[in-house]
Protein 1
Amino acid sequence: MKREERVVQPEEMKRQEAFIEEIREMPQKPKSYYVVTYGCQMNAHDSEKLAGMLQRMGITEAEERDKADFVIFNTCCVRENAERRALGNVTWLKEVRKNNPGLIIAVCGCMIQEPGMAEKILKQYRFINLAFGTANLHCFPELMYRTLNTDRSVVVVEDRDVIPEGLPIARARKEAAYITIMYGCNNYCSYCIVPYVRGRERSRQPEQILREAEGLRDSGVKEIMLLGQNVNSYGKDLEGGMSFAALLKELDGTGIPRIRFMTSHPKDLSDELIDVMSGSRHILPQFHLPVQSGSDRILKMMNRHYTRDQYLDRVRKLREAVPGIGLSTDIIVGFPGETEEEFRETMALVEKVRYDSAFTFIYSPRVGTRAAEMESQIAPEVATRRIQELIALQEGLQQETMKRFVGTEEEVLTEGLSRRSSESVSGKGRHGISITIAGTVQDVGEILRCRVTGLKNNTLVGERI
Ligand code: SAH
Ligand code: SF4
Ligand code: F3S
């Protein structure tokens, strides 16, 4: 399909708008909604779009899930436990319906996009009123209208690579905002289900992204987080394509105080991007660079297209260009066939790089992916022991790496009151690390300058300057 045809046409968006208006006037519409979100930032942002549409329908957000008349689960299926948790909670809601017979239960997101899921819902989960996949998010008004006008389940799953523009967004935070720059993924890492449930890579037009960023800046947003499964391949599908580095440079010029992005695939991390980062004040000195494994053989089996040395070279370049940069990563242990020695290579890499944080996962086979078909799947107890070792190593190293901030000056964008005390606030410093400082509700959402004074319970504490 040509790229232009992927953008949902304005006429279609107008049609959806008309459904919103219809629902607004319906006496039987739900009064309150609650969105339950699983998975990554991509899903969190989709939930903000769902909330945006629901509010336009005249439905207000409920304080608690069990008080709402309309509950929607935005699901994730990247690992089996994510899926199990979602299905468990959806089923539990059936009980809540006994006290609230009018309760509408809806399910959307990546899990619905899995092959056979539509049939499964119609057969085994008949109490679900509405289900739709990631490709149908922008049709939610129409699907909601249908649901409100029938006693049957409405289940719609399509395999389309669309780019919806202009959806209303009810943002969860005032001071920080997500901006999707591209949808989907073409990488087909052999363990990963995302390309199957999120479709092919497609980039938004740079003008659309810039307009959104400027709008956010004008409304006082202090930080934007650019989202894509692989932001480094932004623009490759655009005519006269703009690179991710060039897009960042443009965004840097808007004057938004803080710019972050995720996720970057190491194989596409260009020197151009590193240059842009080193020359910018607004692009924060932090980088999430998933390594997945420290073993060349496993990386190859994972279809990652880089070696351990190439990865380490990127890390070295980043650190040279942006001194003190905050580095985080994702690691999978127990990939099929991973030997003890190969696991040790991952441990050694972690020790060498010294990440500021690491998200560690036990490999989870996903139906339809190549790795799920591979022989010699690792025994659960072996994988569990490996992840425990890895976590222990990382926690120890993190204590050390964090110490480098003690005595330095940082700028914190405060997210909320600290969980430990009502007289302090916490948020992220420019390097992506959480810092707690004295403050009150009035300080939330502000950028505060501080001097880092120490390390307490694994988090940095600072004093305001
Ligand atoms: N596009 C991003 C994030 C994808 S999902 C990226 O490429 O980095 C986030 C993380 O989940 C991945 O980085 C990987 O570490 C983990 N993951 C994905 N599939 C998995 C699986 N089948 N089992 C265990 N972890 C998985
Ligand atoms: Fe999954 Fe790999 Fe794509 Fe990330 S880059 S979403 S891990 S296939
Ligand atoms: Fe999960 Fe979908 Fe994100 S599978 S990790 S919510 S893209």
Protein 2
Amino acid sequence: MEASSQPYRSGFVALIGRPNVGKSTLVNQLVGDKVAITSPVAQTTRNRLRAILTTPEAQLILVDTPGIHKPHHLLGERLVQSARAAIGEVDQVLLLLEACEAPGGGDAFIVNLLRQQRLPVQVVLNKWDLVPPARKPEADAAYRELLDGSHWPVHHCSALDGQGCAELVTAVSALMPEGPQLYPPDMVSDQPERLLMAELIREQVLTHTREEVPHSVAVQIDRVEDMPSKGKGKPRTAVLATVLVERKSQKGILIGKGGAMLKTIGQGARLQMQTLIDGPVYLELFVKVVPDWRSKPARLAELGYAEE
Ligand code: GDP
Ligand code: MG
């Protein structure tokens, strides 16, 4: 391969958009590894996550933010603060919009927020795979109207199947400032493994329980230890974790009949963790009721939802 005459580029890119537009899915698709948790339930991403994408042309540090939405209680406010803070710290913004839905009031709110600052913005019309071919021109026109006068480049993508993502990386790289690699090229995330493990457990909880439980769940990793191996195999890693819920009824749902639900959650999480750390995992899960943990600043800080 001929050496590129272009300068190397690097920097931070914030992914901004309503909850559920596919920000975390896009991060995983671009990085080619599972670093962000995704789910059909809105508001999955709580902590700000940095994923790292290194190519021969550029290193992009992707900041996956919680969706911008109307705050309901303290946790909601923290999510919005965190998204706003992310805009202030990056070199470029990727605005994600859901092509398969009509533009809504929430989208206009975010577009206005972005118009008030001077960062380069590129638009991802995501879930393009869900728009029937006959409706594509109409969907495109509706979003161009929303973005009217912004001159932001628009990309049609599917974060799920990767359609349009290679072109997106090229376009985003081209607008980054010149700079060196800030992280080793094989590093995909700056999050400690423990936090990723906690997120994998939370993802399983969200996947297997619906309604009531999701928004009031937090996961705390109590202990990670190497266990001596019995035979020739790799040593196992023992993980002890506690799922925190707000109400007794939620604890009941999580444990399930004869512990069946907790077992399903544990099995799913264990398999994902084994991929994460590339070795066998022994996982023990506990469930604890902590009333109103979401409204207590000390609790939020303890669980890693730092005040910005
Ligand atoms: P976030 O809240 O913006 O981080 O959204 P997620 O990444 O968690 O995605 C929300 C849901 O949309 C998940 O069920 C994803 O599988 C789904 N999803 C995300 N991107 C796409 C896409 O391009 N096409 C389709 N069909 N589904 C998608
Ligand atoms: Mg997310």
